[in-house]
Amino acid sequence: MKNKLFKVFMLGVTLLATGIAFSQNVTINYQTWNPPSPPCDVFNTATNVPATINGTNGTIQHVTLIGDAKYSTTDQSVQLDNNYVSASDIRGTKYRIAYDFKVGYRYIITVTSAALFSSNSPFLRLDLSNNGSSGGTSCAGAQSVNPNLSGNPPAFQYGGLSFQDVQFAFSTPLASAFTTLEVTSIPAQSAGSSNSIRIRKIVIAETVPPPSFTLTPSSATISCGSTIPLTFTATGSNIPNGATVSYNWNLGANNG
Q: Is the peptide bond before 147 cis (omega within 30 degrees of 0)?
């Protein structure tokens, strides 16, 4: 008696999957926030800034880590001063945004910003972190900052004074989760003082991981004429909401 080899390949998605995934887009618009009578450090204490989360109004917490994050009422932007004193004294400003970055997801962060400088233009650096503390700033201006410009993505150096959209792509799926986004203004070498980066808007766009499926068993052999039911179980993750089942049966060679 011949045997038949049954193999199953999932060509679609299944509602039996677990871990339904949704993408999320967040916009923080400092222009429309426009706080009245802003202090010398607008994020000196944890501050909930209005944000649009998937089209719904909400807030996202901000706090200063290094220097003073000012608010410029002239351009309605968050102002991050930086100052190159010497090779051993590099000063900038850093603040932190509370946001949950998920394992396996990719992110593109767009910062609408401009640089004000007298000679060499400054750098803007974004880092995902789990930093839970603030710097306790004292409204004394830019403070000592890590001048590291490398990374994935690296720091961005401005080429002019006009506001522009600067994009940072975290295009590799995150290997671990992060709870904060750190935004840092770093001076260029020999740039001198009176430099700043001004940020009007931050948009965080996330991309869900591709669907992943597991079929158990992945194949099975049954005898011709067998009437014994055989159950295949399909499980998966990151399946879009409202997905439906699609599959093909491969009966193998010499199946009669």
A: no
The Cα 180–Cα 132 span in angstroms is 8
Tokens of 216: 């158990």
Contact (CB, 8 A) for 75 and 124: no
Domains observed in the chain: 3-19+210-250 (no CATH), 25-207 (2.60.120.260)
Check residue 5 and give its pLDDT: 45
Task: Count CA atoms within 13 Å of residue 198 on its CB side.
Answer: 18
Mean pLDDT by runs of 10 across the 256 residues of the chain is 42 41 85 93 94 95 94 95 94 95 95 92 96 71 93 92 95 94 94 89 91 78 79 75 68 68
E-strand ranges in 130-177 read 143-144, 156-157, 164-170
- Residues 93, 28, 238, 17: is their CA dihedral positive or negative? positive
Residue 129 forms beta bridges with which residues? 180
Cβ proximity of 97 and 61 under 8 Å: yes
pLDDT at 133: 66
Q: Phi and psi for 18 in degrees, rounded to 5?
A: -110, 165
Q: Which among 66, 69, 65, 86 has a CA at the least distance from the CA of 78?
A: 69
Is residue 251 left, alpha or beta, with left meaning phi > 0 and alpha meaning psi from -120 to 50?
alpha
Q: CA 175, CA 183: separation in Å to the nearest integer?
A: 21
- Give me 127's structure tokens: 């880092």
Identify the three-state secondary structure at position 185.
Answer: strand
Q: Transcribe 155-167 into DSSP letters.
A: PEE--SSS-EEEE
Residues in Cβ contact with 113 at an 8 Å cutoff, skipping those fewer than 6 apart: 77, 124, 163, 164, 166, 197, 198, 199, 200
